[in-house]
Design a protein that fits this description.
Length: about 230
């Protein structure tokens, strides 16, 4: 396999590995998908990916190092993210109570994009990723792709090591995210068409995930600032 093709494939795997684990971004995508349909879920995913693109540009310009050098800046961003997650959790609870069934034909709007975009910009996991691994993607060297996978990285270390600094790797990385934000909402929509109670259940679960992460992030921010 040619090196650019191999790098692109590794990037796709990397993007999928980082996008798939449960977290606040997927909670927003899931809620939008089951309440408003596939397009809204996909658009919410685009919001999160756009934030990654912003971080990518900032990493390319070296701006993200400011956050690394000034812990207070990061703590404030994390605190804002935690507060937003609690607010969005409340919103998800309200929708869980109002959504009696799956609304496959609901009209898509840009709200999901805005929510996911703002939340992703203050998500400490994405901030830390672009401060560390994200910067490494831009520089020539090696990266143990699966070792960076949330929750199970230690079990997968050494299985996929790639050369960094390749445009093909970056294209594949964002391509992997596109695959996830396309397929994840589609799977939820398919399930929602079969089970009417699926929408409120997923919205409620999304609220629980957002609330949990919100509390954790606020506690993290308070521990740094106080």
């Amino acid at each position: 396999m040619d090196l650019p093709i191999a790098s692109a494939f590794a990037g796709v795997v990397f993007g999928l590995a980082l996008a798939a684990p449960p977290g606040p971004m997927n909670a927003i995508i899931a809620e939008e998908s089951v309440v408003r349909g596939w397009l809204s879920g996909f658009v919410a995913g685009l919001g999160a990916m756009t934030a990654d693109a912003v971080f990518f540009v900032l990493a390319l310009l070296g701006v993200v190092t400011v956050v690394q050098r000034v812990p207070t800046v990061k703590a404030v961003m994390v605190g804002v993210g935690g507060a937003l997650m609690l607010y969005f959790a409340y919103d998800a609870v309200r929708e869980a109570m109002e959504s009696e069934q799956f609304l496959a034909d609901a009209e898509a709007d840009s709200r999901g994009f805005r929510r996911a975009f703002v939340l992703a910009l203050t998500n400490p996991y994405q901030i830390v990723f672009w401060l560390t691994v994200g910067v490494a993607l831009l520089e020539p060297g090696q990266l143990d792709v699966l070792a960076e996978t949330p929750y199970v990285g230690s079990e997968l270390a050494g299985l996929l090591v790639v050369e960094t600094g390749s445009p093909a790797l970056l294209v594949g990385f964002f391509g992997g995210i596109v695959v996830w934000i396309t397929g994840f909402p589609a799977a939820l929509v398919a399930a929602g068409r079969r089970v009417d109670a699926f929408a409120p259940a997923v919205a409620a679960l999304s609220a629980l995930v957002l609330a949990g992460f919100g509390v954790v992030f606020l506690a993290d921010a308070a521990g740094t600032l106080l």
